[in-house]
Specification:
Elements (H helix, E strand, L loop, with lengths): L2 E4 L7 E3 L38 E4 L9 E7 L14 E3 L2 E5 L5 E4 L11
Antiparallel strand pairs: 1-2, 1-6, 3-4, 4-7, 5-6
Length: 118
Amino acid sequence: MPEFRKDPGDRPLGHHRHRPQPPPGRFQSLSVIPKGDRFCPFCPGNEQKTPPEVLAYRQSGGPNEPGWTLRVVPNKFPALRVEGDFDRQGDGLYDKMNGIGAHEVIIEAPSTTSRSAE
């Protein structure tokens, strides 16, 4: 289970995982625009390819259907879990607790070629 750790230097809690870290640069922020007929699970009409939405702004349609302008879904591969206890404890110089919390994906716009600010 992931955990949060706090060092004695009054720094904020940091997220720590017990598995090898990905190579540097693997999670850089990139603009990803599907080209041609490539499948995108976040595009309108593919709502059933993602977990059920936890929040959506829409002018028409029902939950998990097209018509949304912003959509939030649980991450299929979460770094944190909602289940469990914090189990806070001291470990040498550090305070630590289980990594409990939600890990969600925010789909800012129905078009893969625009952003929420546009």
